[in-house]
Structure formats: C-alpha cells, structure tokens
Design goal:
The protein is an alpha/beta fold. It has 20 helices and 20 strands. It has an 8-stranded parallel beta sheet with strand order 4-3-2-13-10-9-8-5. It has a 3-stranded antiparallel beta sheet with strand order 19-15-20. A 3-stranded antiparallel beta sheet has the order 16-17-18, sandwiched between helices.
C-alpha cells in the first residue's frame, strides 16, 4: 500500500517507550524490565537495518519482540536511512523499510535528518553529517524526505539532528519548521539534539521554542549526554550511555503541554544497566502517565519529491568533518570540535583491530587526520572498500612504502595476520578432572618476539590517559617511546596468546610457565593434577582456562 492508497493515517497513542538495539547482550533489557515491573513503560522503539530479513538474522531479541508485539507495541527507528547526502536511498532499500515497518506494526518510522552512509558504508560510530541550516540545506533535505515518504505506507517522522558547529543562518527549529512546511511530514524532536544546537549557537536552552509548530510533533526523544567545554565554549555530545542531564528533564516537562499531537515519548537508554534505566523510567512515568488517548488522524502526504540538487555540498562537509580541508568561514571552532570528535570515533574503531599499529602510525591528531584525509579513507565511502580497518591497512602499506620502518612493519604484519589465529578450531572441551583452553582463546606464533611492544602499547596508553586526567592534556609526545620499542623486537619465533574481547581481539602477555601450559593445551586438554597449582590459578584468574 502506498500513501495514495490510504485516505488517512491513524496514529495510536503509544505513551512512554524504551529504546533497544534488540541485542540480548545489551543493556537495558526491555522485556526483562517489563517482566519485573509491569507498566513501567508502554512500547519498545528499536533500531535495526532496513531489511526485516537482516534484522531477523542479527537481532538476538527479535523473536522476543515478535512474540510480544501485540501486548508491547513497537516503533521502528531504522539505521542507515539517509535523509540528507549526495545520493537518494535506492528504491529496493525503501521497499524493504516499508515491508519491515508494516510487518511489525510500526505506526510510523522516525529518523534523524542526516547523511548516515555512503558507498554502502556507515560513517564510523554512526556519526552522521548534519545538513547546513540554510535554504540550500532545506531543499536537499526536502528532496530526500519526500523521496523516502513516497515509498512508505506509514508516516515518516523527521527528527532534528545533533550539531557541533553552527552552519547556516537558520535556527535548528526554524530549519525543522520549514522542512515540515514543505513536506507536510510530522516531526520527532530529540531534546538532547536541540540542546546540542543551542550550545553550538551560544543560545539559552529555550531559544526558538516560541513560535515553533509543536502541534506537528508526534514524538519526543530524551537520552543521556555529556557537555564538554573548550575555549570557553560548551559542546553537547549525544552519548546515550551517559545519564540524562537535569536540563533535559526540565525541558521535557515544559514542552509536553505544547505538543498537542504527541503520540510517544522515548527514553533512549542504550547502555544503561536495568537498575539505572528503572530509575529514569520511573521519573518519566510521572510525566507520561499510562493513560490512553484517542488516535490521531493525519492526511497522507502525496507531494512529489523535487530533484536532488546537492547545492548544500555534502561532500564538502565530509572533507571538513574528517579534516581533509579546513572550515572556510563560519564556525571554525565548532568545526574543529566536530573534526576532533570524528577523529576520536575513528581511533576507537581502529583500536579494536589495530591497537599497536594505530598508535605507531596514527597516534597523534595530525597523523590520524592524515589517514582520514587520505584517498584510502575517502574511497571507503565511494564503494571501493570493505571497512575502516581495511582502509587503514591499505593506508599503512602505502605509508611504509614511502617511509620504511622495519619495527613498525613488524607490528602491522602481526596485527594483519592476528585474525588468522581464529581460523583454527578451538581445542577439545576438557572432560571430568581435566583443564583446557577457554573457547575464545588461541595460541599463535610469529617470526619475531613482540612481547615488549604488546606490553608497552597497553602501559603507555594507560599512563598517558592517567596523566590527561590530572593535567587535562594528552601528551602524545610520549608515543616516541613506543616507536623505540617497536624497533627492537626480540628474536623469534614467538608464541603469543590472543582472545576475543567484545568486537576485537586482545593479545596477552603471560608468565613463561603459563605460556608453556597454554601451548600444550592448544593440542588438547590435560588432567588437572598434571598442572602446577599456581599456574592453574593464574590461567583461571585471567579467564584463559576452563575445567571439565
């Protein structure tokens, strides 16, 4: 069913909701919370890929959601949905989105107005690009929004994007009001995102509230965040794992009476333990009581999408955002803060697979910026790469051809080959009275001994971070010591221990007796009585051993 097939959109009252990525390993666990505290909230808003099949395959909580969707309704908050950027979403992707929303009974879908992905790759950390708040930005976003809506049978709710830098002459609320006016689409206002703009513009939190069409807002988001200050200016970092700031509770309370068409208030509590989410939801429950309200009827939007002109120059924002080019005019300080945050996210992404190589080749801001300004990084978002890690590998190879360094080359080669350690099957499970390797542990070998480099990378990272807490400066000049260690590897061959840790791999340095035990256990379990008690205790304390 297309929008033109429906005479009206009927939006039910959803009430208070909790967000989820539908991963049983994540916190909070919405269905566990509801089982323990019935009525704590009314619905689940989940983020997932556009494709229902892909979501079924990867979201471990999907069966639970599907089973309970009649008594616990859901709203679909998709990821990888561009509402800005140089290219419109493919029709097939939007058909998948519509089928997904209809299958789970999502009364609408909402998404930030931003450029989320390019060339099949999401930007690291899902850190999208916010359009400039200009007439050109409005025209490009209207083209995207109406294109998406033309392939949906449920309403698309437009969410105000987060901002570090002030780009354009319009206030974010004026920008949102004009996009609404030209599309006819309802709005979703994220209070933390609004706070981020007010700080970027140096305005009070309530600036721009008067005169905004709050009656067109059908959903509000509230989430955790952090305010950081530099050069006398504040920046709101939209980090959902942090506590909700008191200012946002106050803003929510003041805006609720204005939002006469409101259908839902969602707490985006990603990363909050159940016991912490419980406290926040109880407070929000007082503001959003579980009282049914009549459905809201909206006229379906059938406006034709205008051509996408790209006159707001999204690729120029990309180049500025990742440090390839400086900000020209406008908010130079805000642009630098945005670039620094993007660089930090890239560093965190690379450190999962390249913790030593990243420090050696891109440990400083300028070296990290050299990577994000490189052709290898840009090509990743032009459909010519597989992941940021693969782009980094290609960049390091080029760097080492231009500036040979045997020590650094050894570290890069080691981390390139490290995933191969898990190409082998885990050792057999230990039987009664036996001990064996943990399932997520492997023992590998390498031609030279990098034991000291593994230790140095961890200890130096810890040292520099600790000093930064005290003096508020990350003294990256200390990385020179790491380069010294890289140039003096010991003779090999070297046996090392590696284990899976989250989404990355961790190389461990252990005592020689424990290393010898682990090498023997890689061939098969041994009797507990064959292992010296101190070595057994050390291995179990590190989580490297399992008993039958």
């Amino acid at each position: 069913m297309s929008p033109s097939d429906a005479s009206a959109w009927t939006l039910p009252w959803r009430g208070l909701g909790l967000s989820s990525n539908l991963d049983a390993a994540d916190q909070p666990h919405p269905y566990r919370l509801l089982a323990g505290f019935p009525g704590l909230f009314d619905f689940v808003e989940y983020s997932a890929p556009l494709s229902l099949d892909e979501t079924r395959e990867h979201a471990s909580l999907f069966p639970r959601m599907w089973e309970h969707r009649q008594d616990v309704p859901v709203l679909f908050h998709p990821v990888h949905l561009n509402l800005y950027g140089p290219e419109l979403e493919p029709v097939k992707a939007l058909e998948d989105l519509d089928a997904h929303a209809r299958a789970v009974g999502s009364a609408w879908v909402g998404n930030d107005i931003g450029w989320w992905h390019a060339g099949g790759q999401p930007f690291p950390g899902y850190l999208y690009f916010t359009p400039p708040f200009t007439e050109a930005g409005i025209r490009d976003c209207v083209a995207h929004a109406l294109h998406v809506q033309s392939h949906l049978s449920v309403p698309l709710a437009l969410e105000n994007p987060a901002a570090f830098a002030r780009r354009g002459e319009l206030h974010v609320l004026d920008f949102m009001a004009r996009v609404h006016e030209r599309t006819g689409l309802p709005m979703l206002i994220d209070l933390g995102h609004l706070f981020s703009y007010q700080l970027a513009a140096g305005l009070p939190l309530e600036a721009g509230v008067e005169g905004f069409p709050w009656d067109k807002v059908i959903e509000l988001h509230i989430a955790g965040g952090v305010i950081t200050r530099r050069s006398g200016r504040g920046y709101y970092v939209d980090d959902h794992t942090q506590p909700v700031r008191e200012e946002l509770f106050g803003l929510l309370e003041s805006l609720l009476p204005r939002c006469t068409s409101l259908r839902a208030v969602t707490f985006e509590g990603d990363g909050h333990p159940d016991e912490v989410a419980l406290l926040t939801l109880r407070r929000l429950r007082e503001l959003v009581p579980a009282t049914p309200r009549p459905p809201l009827t909206l006229t379906p939007v059938t406006r034709e999408a205008p051509a996408l002109t790209r006159e707001s120059e999204p690729w120029a924002l990309f180049e500025t955002g990742y440090g390839a080019k400086p900000e020209t005019g406008g908010d130079v300080e805000g642009a630098r803060a945005e670039t620094d945050f993007r660089l930090a996210v890239v560093a965190e992404t690379l450190d999962r697979d390249w913790p030593m190589s990243r420090l050696l080749l891109a440990g400083t801001r300028e070296d990290l910026r050299a990577f994000t300004a490189s052709k290898e990084f840009r090509e990743l978002f032009e459909g010519l790469g597989r992941s940021p890690g693969h782009a980094f590998a290609a960049w390091t190879r080029r760097r080492l051809r231009e500036h040979p360094d045997e020590g650094v080359a050894a570290a890069v080669t080691f981390e390139t080959l490290l995933p191969n350690s898990f190409m082998t099957r885990p050792s057999a499970a230990p039987g009664p009275a036996q001990v064996g390797l943990s399932e997520d542990v492997r023992v590998g070998t390498f031609p030279v001994d990098l034991t000291e480099l593994v230790f140095a990378a961890k200890s130096l990272r810890r040292h520099l971070t600790g000093r930064a807490w005290a003096c508020e400066v990350l003294d990256v000049s200390g990385l020179e010591a790491l380069a010294q260690v890289a140039r003096r590897p010991a003779r090999g061959p070297w046996s090392f221990v590696v284990r899976r840790r989250g989404r990355g791999l961790e190389v461990l340095t252990v005592s020689p007796p424990l290393l010898e035990l682990l090498r023997s256990l890689a061939k098969g379990p041994r009797g507990v009585d064959e292992v010296p008690a101190p070595v057994l205790a050390e291995g179990r304390a590190l989580g490297l051993l399992r008993r039958g």
